[in-house]
Automatic annotation (TrEMBL):
Record Pfam families: ACDH_C, Acyl-CoA_dh_1, Acyl-CoA_dh_M, Acyl-CoA_dh_N
Catalytic activity: a long-chain 2,3-saturated fatty acyl-CoA + oxidized [electron-transfer flavoprotein] + H(+) = a long-chain (2E)-enoyl-CoA + reduced [electron-transfer flavoprotein]; a medium-chain 2,3-saturated fatty acyl-CoA + oxidized [electron-transfer flavoprotein] + H(+) = a medium-chain (2E)-enoyl-CoA + reduced [electron-transfer flavoprotein]
Transmembrane segments: 45-65
Family, per entry: Belongs to the acyl-CoA dehydrogenase family.
Enzyme class: oxidoreductase
Residue stretches making up the Acyl-CoA dehydrogenase/oxidase N-terminal domain: 124-233
Protein name per UniProt: Acyl-coenzyme A dehydrogenase
Molecular functions (GO terms): flavin adenine dinucleotide binding; long-chain fatty acyl-CoA dehydrogenase activity; medium-chain fatty acyl-CoA dehydrogenase activity
Start and end residues of each Acyl-CoA oxidase/dehydrogenase middle domain: 238-338
Essential cofactor(s): FAD
EC number(s) given by UniProt: 1.3.8.7, 1.3.8.8
């Protein structure tokens, strides 16, 4: 019995030391004390085993001992198996900053570090712009007119965008811009997501483009000339990066610039001769100034000894001789201005290089650093704004659309997708807002930008699919009354651009995060490159301590022992503790995958993707908890908290489960499964009760619906119809209408109304005639049913309306 007690004491003591990553000395003390005690008063065999363990810990854990024999051997082995990091990858890894994503890699996230990113909200100026100017812009949008009739925004909307300096949101006020915060930019784009063409047109110049590049790297002369002109719309920018041979692998671009001399106005000047072919360039057809990425060569050594000068960026006026620009691509579902740019032997002076000669060869670094911020804002904000509108439209439609004498919102088959899309929209709102807030606090979130871009645009795909299902025939029939179908068909654009989601999920999130966010991997690689064995020793054995710590934390917390203290209350505290548990499991699995697969992990993209999925879902769940903790909660929101966190944590566990199923080393997979999930998966699909509560709230005039639709265009006072405002108006009187529906339907069932009173309008008139409802109620229902019918109606057209070549029309019934 004493032997068993000593064994348990040793195990518990080691787990406590490991959980705290207390180092070799406390572990040595636990093993030595329990070993000597066992040797003297219990089992000599156990005592010898524990003392041997103590000797092993001393040999590997004490720097003075391991430095003489173990560290040199490990360093030699590490040099052989560690992945080679290319210069391109190194630039990407060093771009941006590490914040909460790094905490999740530690396995013991410090929640106070996340809460320290306090939120000061929007300024009065920003909120006023959102309320007024953005409502004006949204009110000028008719999706059918923009997409099918003019393939462009109307002129008055272009004039408004330029006049109100939408293209200068990121440009400081001293250059004539708006100088908005990242949060304000995000909320502006969310509101403008009423129309995807409008959102893209405003978003792209404020994301990856000449404006941000000039701000960060431009010369004073370039800034003073271009930034005021970009801010007020005198210059429309585009940026040419991708081409026929360079898409996701943008660094392989074959476009070239050659340093040369040319006589201009009788004077010989040094410049660049450019040859390029770009495509998929947003705003290219109307751009007045073109940002261009190319590989620069100096074969005649006019600028120095080096011939290959690397990727370089330049800013070229539209009217530069030799540049072909103006043709258009036809993006699926949306006519936002996008097209190719070509150039053959285009000569430009050296001062067109962004940042001047000092920034030659720095183009890839410049692009990656800008993208770490811009990718957090534009497409994630567009996806979040789309979700807001889709939730509002779908909740309203499901409530006013009646089948079998009840609103379809009362049918569980509709409630399920309505709740799912609402939860995904809620998660998106929290993630994009809180990440933008970290940007406003000085962070440049490289890995979160990849998470938000891929995850939220995938959410958008699900949300729009669910919205289409709920709307049914209303959404599949195109025309001016269809507010959903064109955006649905344009969704693949968001999936594809700014890093295709396949690439981002499979390569970037974990591939970049495993090195950039890990507490020790970057240090180990730097020690290898510097051939610094002492730095390697510190990093490697710190890494080893982290592995043991995560194993202990994951296992004990998986058993429900030693839950971490978190700065939250109620249910949020439980979810934060579960995030910490899965963070420890994720950290352990990440290290196990890197150790067992080495450099080949790069090629095992499906495994990398699953690790990225764990990180993504833990990050999103953390943002939801922070938003819940700091926000003004409304009735019904708790159900969304539960649904969202259970969904995300269930997805994280599922990704871990699939990782265990597919790791090549089956013994390692079995050990990891038992350590990380000793009690199996904790989270199932959210309960049906949650779905019912959420669906009811968003299909009624509730506080939760109002909160979810905040900062959308919800006033019906523009030149174009606002369907969201019309749904909101109907929901405001829904309770009164439901009572009258029940009264009339009950009277019809009893035979008190004529048998042919089949339409709601007929029953209203019959009810009036029989005195079943009052004149006031009758007038109310007449007006309401007219408005309902208008929202349910779809468009029809002349027989040959969609035929471009009328000579090809088949007149099947010509007679």
């Amino acid at each position: 019995m004493l032997t068993l007690i000593l064994l348990i004491v040793a195990i518990v003591g080691l787990l406590a030391v490991m959980r705290r990553e207390a180092g070799a000395l406390p572990a040595l003390a636990v093993l030595a004390i329990t070993g000597l005690t066992s040797l003297l008063v219990a089992s000599p065999v156990l005592g010898i085993l524990l003392l041997l363990g103590a000797a092993g810990v001393a040999a590997a854990g004490l720097p003075a001992l391991r430095g003489k024999w173990l560290t040199p051997r490990l360093f030699t082995m590490f040099k052989k198996v560690s992945p080679r990091v290319s210069e391109t990858e190194r630039v990407a890894l060093e771009a941006g900053s590490v914040a909460w994503d790094g905490e999740l890699f530690t396995g013991k996230p410090n929640w106070q570090a996340l809460l320290d990113y306090t939120d000061e909200g929007l300024s009065e100026e920003e909120q006023a712009f959102l309320d007024k100017q953005c409502s004006v812009a949204a009110g000028m949008c008719n999706a059918w007119d923009i997409a099918k009739e003019r393939a462009d925004l109307p002129q008055e909307l272009w004039d408004h965008l330029k006049q109100e300096r939408y293209f200068g949101m990121i440009i400081p006020k001293e250059y004539g811009g708006l100088g908005f915060s990242a949060k304000a930019q995000s909320l502006v784009l969310q509101k403008l997501s009423i129309n995807e063409t409008l959102m893209v047109t405003v978003g792209v110049p404020n994301s990856l483009g000449p404006g941000e590049l000039l701000l960060k790297y431009g010369t004073d002369e370039q800034k003073n000339h271009y930034l005021p002109r970009l801010a007020d719309g005198r210059e429309i920018p585009c940026f040419g990066l991708t081409g026929p041979r360079a898409g996701s692998d943008a660094t392989s671009l074959p476009d070239t610039g050659v340093v040369c001399k040319q006589v201009i106005d009788g004077e010989e000047v040094i410049g660049l001769r450019l040859n390029f072919e770009k495509r998929w360039i947003t705003l290219a057809p109307i751009a007045t100034v073109v940002g261009l990425a190319f590989r620069l060569f100096d074969p005649d050594h006019l600028l120095g000894e080096e011939e290959d000068r690397g990727i370089t960026l330049a800013l070229i006026p539209r009217d530069t001789e030799g540049m072909e620009i103006g043709r258009r691509h036809h993006p699926i579902g949306s006519p936002f201005l996008n097209g190719p740019i070509r150039g053959k032997d285009v000569f430009v002076p050296l001062d067109t290089i962004i940042g001047g000669e000092a920034m030659i060869g720095q183009g890839w670094r410049m692009l990656v650093e800008c993208l770490s911020v811009g990718r957090c804002i534009t497409l994630p904000s567009g996806a979040t704004g789309t979700a807001r509108y889709a939730i509002g439209w779908s909740g309203g439609f499901a409530r006013i659309r009646r089948q079998f004498n009840v609103p379809v919102a009362e049918m569980e088959g509709v409630q399920e997708p309505l709740a799912r899309m609402t939860a995904l929209g809620y998660i998106a709102q929290a993630a994009v807002y809180q990440t933008a807030n970290t940007i406003d606090r000085g962070e440049k979130p490289a890995v979160p930008s990849a998470i938000l871009k891929s995850q939220l645009t995938e959410f958008q795909r699900v949300i729009l699919g669910d919205a289409m299902d709920i709307h049914g025939g209303k959404a599949v029939t195109l025309g001016p009354r269809n507010y959903l179908g064109i955006g649905y068909s344009a969704n693949p654009v968001a999936i594809t651009v700014e890093g295709a989601n396949i690439m981002t999920r499979n390569l970037m999130i974990f591939g970049q995060g495993a090195i950039r966010c890990h507490p020790y991997v970057l240090e180990e690689l730097a020690a290898k490159d510097a051939d610094d064995i002492q730095a390697f020793d510190r990093a490697f054995f710190g890494h080893a301590g982290l592995i043991f710590g995560n194993a202990a934390r994951a296992f004990t917390q998986g058993l429900g022992i030693g839950k971490p203290v978190v700065p939250f209350d109620g249910e949020a505290a439980r979810y934060a503790q579960e995030i910490a548990r899965l963070s420890a499991g994720f950290g352990l699995c990440a290290d196990a995958a890197m150790a067992s697969l080495g450099a080949t992990l790069k090629l095992r993209e499906m495994l990398s993707a699953r690790l990225g999925d764990v990180l993504s879902n833990l990050y999103l769940a953390s943002m939801v908890i922070k938003q819940w903790h700091e926000g003004d909660r409304v009735e019904g929101e708790e159900a969304l908290l539960h649904y969202s966190c259970q969904l995300l944590l269930g997805r994280a566990e599922q990704a871990l489960d699939e990782l265990f199923d597919n790791l090549p080393n089956r013994a390692l997979a079995g050990v990891l499964r038992r350590v990380v999930m000793p009690r199996g998966k904790r989270f199932k699909r959210p309960h049906d009760d949650l779905a019912r509560r959420i669906a009811q709230a968003v299909s009624h005039d509730s506080a939760l619906r109002t909160k979810l639709l905040a900062n959308t265009w919800s006033s019906d006072d523009g030149p174009e119809a606002n369907f969201l405002a019309r749904y909101n108006a109907l929901l405001a009187t829904q309770e009164r209408a439901e009572g009258l529906y029940r009264t009339l339907n009950k009277a019809y069932a009893k035979g008190e109304l004529a048998a042919d009173a089949l339409h709601p309008e007929q029953r209203v008139e019959a009810g009036l005639a029989q005195g079943i409802i009052s004149q006031e109620d009758g007038a109310f229902m007449r007006e309401r049913e007219a408005r309902v019918l208008e929202l349910l109606t779809v468009d029809d057209f002349e027989y040959d309306a969609f035929v471009t070549d009328k000579s090809k029309v088949l007149r099947h019934n010509a007679s």
